[in-house]
């Protein structure tokens, strides 16, 4: 049996680009038992600040995990099953948006790509308050991932 090509580590620039191209990934938080808790999340990547932002509600299990232990990782699939990026770091949990248009609400609005912004921003901000939304900010201190070059 012949050995195929080895996985190739991706550069920081390639990893950042991969994070920017995707919008869904798997967020891993740490349960009390030490086991990982995994959940699929829509995210927003800020490459200059090296921060991944997630919108969620205060009652979610992951929020409790992150308040207790801020260590987290986001796994993002590349363009094929052979490539991926992982963003690791410590997360901070914002307060809940309580007044339409407050700082957290504006941050939630800012996470939406310009082309997908809601037509009625006021209604969006009111909905965020009604849902008890907040922002999880994963401050990335390590990026890693690989690609496997296989000819199709």
Rounded Rg = 17 Å
Quote the beta fraction: 35-45%
Widest beta sheet: strand line-up: 3-2-6-7-8-5-4
Number of domains: 1
The run of helices and strands is EHEEEEHEEHHEE
Question: What is the CATH fold-level name?
Answer: Pnp Oxidase, Chain A
| Distinct helical segment count | 4
Straight-line N-to-C gap: 19 Å
The major sheet is characterized as:
7 strands, antiparallel
User: What is the architecture at the second tier of CATH?
Assistant: Roll
Molecular shape: globular
- Could you name the CATH class? Mainly Beta
Low-pLDDT runs: none
SS-derived structural category:
alpha+beta
Q: Find the count of extended strands (DSSP E, 2+ residues).
A: 9
Mean of all residue-level pLDDT scores: 95
Helix content: 10-25%
Give a short summary of the structure:
By secondary structure, the chain is an alpha+beta fold. Helix content is 24%, strand content 38%.
Tell me about this structure.
The chain has 152 residues and is an alpha+beta fold. The protein is built from four helices and nine strands. The protein has helices at 12-21, 61-68, 103-110, 121-131; strands spanning 8-9, 24-30, 36-42, 44-46, 51-57, 71-77, 84-93, 133-144, 146-147. It has a seven-stranded antiparallel beta sheet with strand order 3-2-6-7-8-5-4. Strands 1-9 form a two-stranded antiparallel sheet. A hairpin with a 5-residue loop joins strand 2 (24-30) and strand 3. It starts with 7 loop residues before the first strand and ends in a 5-residue tail after the last strand. The model has no long low-confidence stretch (mean pLDDT 95).
């Amino acid at each position: 049996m012949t050995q195929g090509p080895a996985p190739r580590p991706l550069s920081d620039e390639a990893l950042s680009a991969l994070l920017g191209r995707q919008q869904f990934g798997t967020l891993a938080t740490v349960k009390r038992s030490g086991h990982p808790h995994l959940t699929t999340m829509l995210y927003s990547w800020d490459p200059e600040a090296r921060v991944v932002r997630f919108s969620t509600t205060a009652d979610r299990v992951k929020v409790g995990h992150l308040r207790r232990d801020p260590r987290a990782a986001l796994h993002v699939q590349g363009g094929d099953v052979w490539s991926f990026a992982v963003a690791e770091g410590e997360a901070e949990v914002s307060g809940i948006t309580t007044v339409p248009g407050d700082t957290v609400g504006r941050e939630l609005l800012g996470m939406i790509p310009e082309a997908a912004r809601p037509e009625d921003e006021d209604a969006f901000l009111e909905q965020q308050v009604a849902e008890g939304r907040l922002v999880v900010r994963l401050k990335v201190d390590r990026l890693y991932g690989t690609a496997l070059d296989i000819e199709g």
